[in-house]
């Protein structure tokens, strides 16, 4: 018998049970890898969103700090209305949004 020939009668080849077992094991392994990959992608998206939110908050705080440093009439203890070189400014809180007018 040559090495390129396949033996038909005897023990050559795979049984149906062996093929089904390999398919089941491959499916379980693919499901485990897929769930791990989905968790990694979700973690990346949460990190990216929180980084963007942190940058926006830092920008807002820097702007408010700059506005207050340039304040002319902040001696009365209230900072909701003040004057700087840009003119009279008002800071209000509406629906959890800080507005600078």
Characterization of this structure:
- The model has no long low-confidence stretch (mean pLDDT 78).
- By secondary structure, the protein is α+β, with helices and mostly antiparallel strands.
- It has 1 helix and 3 strands.
- It is rod-shaped.
- It has a 3-stranded antiparallel β-sheet, with no helix packed on it.
The share of residues in helices is 40-55%
For the report, how would you describe the main beta sheet?
3 strands, antiparallel
Total count of helical runs of at least 4 residues: 1
Radius of gyration: 34 Å
Short structural description:
53% of the residues lie in helices and 16% in strands. The protein has one helix at residues 16-69; strands at residues 81-84, 87-94, 97-100. The mean pLDDT is 78.
């Amino acid at each position: 018998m040559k090495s390129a020939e396949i033996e038909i009668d005897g023990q050559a080849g795979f049984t149906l049970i062996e093929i089904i077992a390999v398919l089941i094991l491959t499916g379980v392994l693919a499901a485990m890898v897929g769930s791990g990959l989905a968790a990694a992608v979700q973690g990346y998206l949460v990190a990216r969103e929180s980084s963007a939110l942190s940058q926006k908050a830092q920008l807002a705080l820097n702007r408010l700090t700059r506005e207050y440093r340039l304040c002319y009439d902040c001696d009365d203890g209230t900072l909701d209305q003040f004057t700087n070189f840009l003119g009279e400014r008002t800071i209000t809180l509406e629906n959890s949004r800080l507005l600078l007018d």
